[in-house]
Write a structure and sequence with these properties.
seven-stranded mixed sheet, alpha/beta, six-stranded parallel sheet
Amino acid sequence: MKKVLLTNPCAPYDLGWGEDMMDLLASRLARGHDIANLKSHLPAWGLYLIAENIRNPATVLEHPGWEDFLKELQNGYDVIGIQLKTINLERTVRMVEAIKKYSPKSEIVIGGYGVSALDAKLPGDVNDYAGWLKQNSDHLCHEEGVKFMRRVLGDAPFDRPITQFHMPYARFHLPGMRHFDLNIPAILVSLGCPNACDFCNTSAFFKHKKIYVAEPAEVISFMRHHKRKLGVDTLNVILFDEDIFLNTEYVRELGRLLRADRELWGVRWISFGSAKALAPFSGEELRECGVGGIWIGVESGLVDGDCGKEGFAKRDGGKSPPELFDDLHRHGIETIGSMILGFDFHTPENIEKDIDYFIDLKPMFYQVGPLTPCPGTKLYEEFTRDGRLKSNYSYQHFHLWKDDGIDYKHFGEGGIKRWFDLAHEKLRTVNGPPTLQFAELNFRGYETLRSHASEYLRFQAEQSRQLAAGAMPLVRAIGKNAPSPAVKARVRELESMADRLIEPPTLALRAVGKVVELVAARQAQAHDRLERPPVVSDPGARWSYYNQGSAAPKRRGAFGPADKQSRAAGGLSTSWPFARKRVEPPVDPGRVRVEHEDDDPRVEEERARRRLAVVG
């Protein structure tokens, strides 16, 4: 049976306009806050999903250093898969060169959304890295990865169900509280999106089609498993689906199954949705379906007026963004809003108006970035046809922190950065840290639902009350170190809501609150010494093993808590029971992800050394 290595490009990674691109919150969704600058780590889920769903012995090596990768090649893998992010194309080329030198018999598989860029000759790719990688890879994955890898390995039947029991968790923590991570499972529901926004790479990758991976009953089973594994009463779960609400029957069946199992009443899920897809739902019904948060692509407030353009079908027939966001907030549903700067209709005269429109929505989290035409999209075709790609435009431009590779119609080189900074400054000084919005929307959700006839929604209301009350110590700390009078006024409003809606905290809770306030105040004065310095991003290598046989391998990983059950597991099974309607983990606990880490301080010393070095 072929032995498989799955990895992503070697670390350390570059920063994006001063922030760690690998940190979703610090660089994007909660960028720009000092006292409450939330931190996060998101694993390379695609690699783990494949490893769990093949029968072959597999190793997942996440964020390796160059030396880590070279040493791993010595273990003799038959198939090596690399998850390509376009910005890491050159690193991936170097990894493939190393594979051909040190493990020449290995088949090389390249997957991930970065594969879409390999079919385009970018002006700035003067070394033709894309062409070289295509010629020197054995397999390029342009489809759903699990079924593709099963075919590569001959692991039939190829279309058997995909399970998601042993995936690692996203981890989030408050500043200064790195050792108190909030663990959030992620479940893949589907890939692709039929909305076909002209700038969207992930929709174009799957030809604007939706490919389902998990049915509602399967999603519920995965939720139940992770809730029991984590041993928690309440749990947030990320459901990956680019617009889950397009399938109303799917969402309503998911809600019905959640309500039918009281054990899962404490589960709330977060996914992506458009105004058009959300039109059939009220905020109340969304809460009845277990929705805790929605990422909504606002993109611009000007597209509903004179600056309307094609490619925004996802807004047709839905509520306007202000109406939609207010309804969601009133029912205690968190929002993530995204905005694009640099559309052709943006001018120096109207772009700040558009930014203010976005600020007024009060999204709890947000993503603001410059327009970027990605290969495979309609927008890329238009920019190529019109000669608007600059000579330096290359794979290094495929992220949110560059604005020097294309000709913006009304902005010169570097002109978008000014408005990017202004948007985040207004998010910081007008709305304040996401914690304030979190507290406010949960207070509003409690007010709206606390007297509802539905026992399930009353339960949800009480959950919202507890979440809001739990956030108040940090809210008060923010008020004492507020970045502006407007934020200080927001804190006073929230304190009034707390006085009106919740009982005074117990002595124990007040003591905990004081600790949180002290930590937050310290964070306002100095950088947390536990956090990585802003030189480069170096998440630390992590080894995970699947189906290794009778002996669990002994390797060292430098990042992330190992599963206690995995540590105790002995022999690993190679069998797996599949059931389409109801999927539960096998009785044999052996087939779990096995991670290894070491608390040796030398690990951190080595990481610090690598941060300051160039990969080579």
